[in-house]
Amino acid sequence: MKKKIFAFLIAATFICCAFFFNGGVAYAAEGYKVYLGGLPAGFNMQTRGAYIAGLSDVITEDGIKSPSKDAGLKCGDVIYYIENTEVNSAKDVERVISLTSGEITVEYSRCGNAYTTEITPAKDLQGDKKLGIFIRDDISGIGTITYIDKDRIATLGHPVLDDNGGLLKITKGEIFGCNITGCVKGERGAPGELRGVIMKNNQIGKIESNTEYGVFGTLNDKFDAQNLKEIEIGEGKMGDAVIYSTVEGDTPQDYSISIIKADNTFSDSRNYVVKITDKRLLKATGGIVQGMSGSPIVQNGKLIGAITHVFINDPTRGFGISINNMLNK
Fold it and tell me: CATH for 57-131, among 3.40.309.10, 2.30.42.10, 3.30.43.10, 3.30.365.10?
């Protein structure tokens, strides 16, 4: 099941580079340049652990049994070990329990807390051992590339979260090209979203880390970043600016915004409060929508940050992260 993960919403009720240090905050050295993003991207991530997407009954010769439900497991739990063996997918779970007999020990997490329980798998009518769970092996979604720095690629500007609001643990992932085909406009109380086709035959890079400051990875050798615009890193302030984003097709456009609050001392993804002022973007999307996370913010010709959140009660406004927080992840 495709999960909409790349526009972590806040309601308003929510790499190799040189640095110098000033007042305890690290900044990219003056004149440092990266390649400007704004490109739409499709993401696919394999999760660390076996994520329980649903519980089910098992039909056996002795009637209906519910091993996991009876053991207290719930949707959203993540199984990390069965009988001290690491599991990360449905195939891992099936393989491990097929080699066991009787009661087994399952180690899992719920809302960031670790638990252990004992479960006796049930044999279905085909003789296969089952725990009575549906496992989601990976998640996918659409977002925006912020910048490319040599062979490094930076996206989103915020973490990908699990269903419990914690940082999603991943084992690996891929970033693909994407073609935006439509948009559900954002409205007060109802965030919109970009819709598109993920082009699995066009891999841009491989995901290495999911962090508080975005999703980062390595660039595919075949991707030619030389076609992108080089831009100097800067520090944002209140005033006019633009964002680069793609709301149709695969080519970024620049849209006017206003930075109405700026604080580069925050060490999270809320350094700027921005307001969309571009009539074209407002007509197309209603403001900031899911899928625009990572859209680079440019002010006075310098890259100063990226869009990260939308205010649910006002889709024309949202948060942005300082580019230095992404560079210093």
Answer: 2.30.42.10
